[in-house]
Amino acid sequence: MRSPDVPRKVLIVDDSRTIRRLIKSRLSRDPRIVVVGEAEDAYQAKRLVSELSPDVLTLDIEMPGMNGLEFLRKLMRVRPVPVVMISAETQQGSERALEALSLGAVDCVGKPGPGALATAFSDLAELLYCAAGARLRQPQRSPVKAASSVFHWNGRVVLVGSSTGGVDALEIMLADYPENCPPTLITQHMPKTFLSSFARRLDSKVAPHVVLAEDGMGLEQGKVYLAPGGETHLTLDWRAAPLCRLLWSEKCGGYRPSVEVLFRSAIPWANRISAVMLTGMGRDGAAAMRRLRDGGAECFAQDEATSAVYGMPRAAIENGAADRGLPITEIASAVLGTAQS
Q1: Same domain as 102, residue 162
Q2: Among 13, 32, 144, 341, which is 20 to 30 Å from 329 by CA?
Q3: Model confidence pLDDT, tens digit, residues 105-149
Q4: Residue 293: which CATH number?
Q5: Residue 189 known to be catalytic
Q6: 169 and 120 fall within a common domain
């Protein structure tokens, strides 16, 4: 097991000298990180991975010759290393980022646009530090839409929080959801444009209908509502019928959308809630999840063995919000059991 005192070795792979310099500058401020090399294309990166044995890579998706996706596919097959993708926050860029996550990348961050260089990659050091210890998985076949099954909803609403590794975890969880699943609200840490693509991706793969949540959207059986991110947090309003509410607010604990904000909004109706904490770094949502449980909610956390990064689930278990971790393959069954009449 790697000592926490030993700096994580990072290899930066990007064809842009400006981006490489910017990333290196940001990482140089964190003593837990040491940049051991830079590569301007996939061929140079292949050689440096072999020579330097980095703990984690940053990898640009768009590069001349062999692009980042091709390199990632070969890397995961021959010499798996934790990878954080750097992608343009466009529709095409976000779709390729999600493909990278399905190929085994740990996470993906947006490339800064014009005028955004001053604040770009501000959280990258923390992400790379956590990613260096992430559990890598072999790329799997895409989940297939589940067949309709007998499910009688008891009126309970499901809330889910996830972060690093959450794309894979959510696909696995929702693949076991029936077409007439309980209404489910999800906050996944991800840039806004990536979330739009992720909603479409999930909707094409699983039996329920997956949509980006809108303000005032009523909750319906058979639908999954994904936080749209950007300038808003997703919250639950159940003063009359249950509704999605978008809260225009500052980041909470460094996140927007925030799991803490979603879970906190449901505390008044805790006895009608089932809450789930999936893989991710940090503690976002753990405090509010404990308050949900104290109010009567059924609460679950992903176990360490199947979490890419065991941060958020660990926090939920350590503070008593959940009794124990469950493998990701058992989460849906446990949740559906609480929402079945």
Answers
A1: no
A2: 341
A3: 999 988 887 777 777 898 899 999 999 999 887 655 455 555 456
A4: 3.40.50.180
A5: yes
A6: no
